[in-house]
Amino acid sequence: MHKAFEKVILIGYGKIAGQALSYTADRRKDYGYQIEFVEHEVNPFPVTEKICRENDIPFARIEDKKELAAFFQSISERTLIVSVSNNFLFPGSLVAKENITIINFHNALLPGYPGRNAPSWVIFMGEKESGVTWHYVTAGVDEGNIIIQKKCAVTADMKAYELAGTLMELAYEAFTECFDAVIQNKADARAQETGKDRRMYRSYEIPGDGFFEPTQDAADIYRLLRSTDYGKNDIFPPVQTVLEGKKAEVLRYRKISADRVPEDVLQAIAKQAAENNRADCKENRAYTYLADTTESGFLYFPLDNGNILRIKCRLITP
Amino acid sequence: MEEKVLEILEEHCEEAIDYDGDSMMEDGIIDSFTVINVVSDLEDEFDIEIDAKYVVAENFKNKEAIIALVKMLLEE
User: What's the pLDDT tens digit per position in A196-215?
Assistant: First the structure.
């Protein structure tokens, strides 16, 4: 049987990379290709190295971009590169090589939200729906023809990492669905409609500039916090605000039911909220700050349905 | 403290409670998204900050390692 690809190289990190790697290894018997795996970004919870070990797949860790580009440029076989949860931008000269085909998973419904950190922007913009796109890679970022897309709902309390997790599950599902067509070079891909006003999201951009005023609408603040929340991954710096004339950064936040808040705290919230309503807040935008030490404290905001947004902050200027 | 840690862990990943190996991540018991939820709940429950340097596979290799991490942070 003629093989469209002699080799498959996967590059990426995290759970989805592990899943795609395992699947590609399982399908090796059907198509007879060789597999290699490249880790470009080191993950605190690595899973792919073990899969490579168990499946006799060469594993390379190449953190340097130039070295990685040179590695790809040296490929002489007909090769499919699967970019799965990967932030390395493939150089135009590599994309142009006739023996190389690259597919990439993007965590949004292209042509919408191209670029970096799409789940964050989707949440920040208040979208109710998102999804994943597998597409061929061209010289432009996230511009290539679309192979497959899948949609999911963006729920009211969803945080960026939760949406990212949901998207990765979808991405794996989509990968298995389009795999046979892609590996035989028979995928029925369609062009994207990318206009001049297409907004590209850059790695240095932060939703809401990573800052809120305590007098903002609580729902907007909650959305900002959720949109930048990747747990301990330092994708974004901590969200900042200003409290009593001092800069403060958010340590953590939680939407809680009012009945989980101690009565004395509720009374303090009501009292301060009334004062803030008069002083500097519009209706429903009252906030309360209760210090627990000289350096930290909790901000409280009323949300809908009797819920409260509680934010632990740390003052960062003397 | 241990009981509360286990309660939080069980809420997000029941399998972790009975796991007796030493690499929950590699063995597919827990994933990085579950770790984020567990960390978030531990911080909230114990009013501690778990710095990113502690959120690594070694400290989440099994329930005993998680308990040891929380204990260490509470004693700091």
Answer: 788 999 999 999 999 999 88
Over its C-alpha atoms, chain A yields an Rg (Å, rounded) of 23
First CA to last CA distance, chain A: 71
- Partner residue facing B26 (CB), from A47, A234, A254: A47
Given a contact cutoff of 8 angstroms between Cβ atoms, the answer to whether A86 and A40 are in contact is yes
| CB < 8 Å to B56, chain A | 44-45
What ipTM was reported for this prediction?
A: 0.76
The model's pTM is: 0.89
Phi-psi region of A200 (alpha: psi -120 to 50; beta: other; left: phi over 0): beta
Sequence-distant (6+) residues with CB within 8 A of A151 are A109, A129, A130, A131
Q: Do A45 and B36 touch (CB under 8 A)?
A: no
Query: Among A197, A190, A199, A167, which Cα is nearest to A84's?
Result: A167
A9-35 pLDDT tens trace: 999 988 899 999 999 999 999 999 999
DSSP sequence for chain A: ---S-SEEEEEE-HHHHHHHHHHHHHTHHHH--EEEEEE-S--SS--HHHHHHHHT--EEE---HHHHHHHHHT--S-EEEEEES--PPPPHHHHT-TTEEEEEEESS-TTSS-BS-HHHHHHHTT-SEEEEEEEE--SSTT-SPEEEEEEEE--TT--HHHHHHHHHHHHHHHHHHHHHHHHTT----B-----TTPPPBPTT--GGGGB--TTS-HHHHHHHHHHT-BTB-TTSPPPEEEETTEEEEEEEEEEEEGGGS-HHHHHHHHHHHHHHHHHT--TT---EEEESSSSEEEEEEE-GGGEEEEEEEEE---
Shortest distance between the Cα of B71 and any Cα of chain A, in A, equals 19
* Chain A partners within 8 Å of B32 (Cβ): 14-15, 43-45
The DSSP symbol for B23 reads -
Question: Does the CB of B15 have a partner CB in chain A at under 8 Å?
Answer: no
Question: DSSP string spanning A147-177?
Answer: EEEEEEE--TT--HHHHHHHHHHHHHHHHHH
* Side chain identity, residue A138: T
- CA A182 from chain centre, in angstroms, equals 25
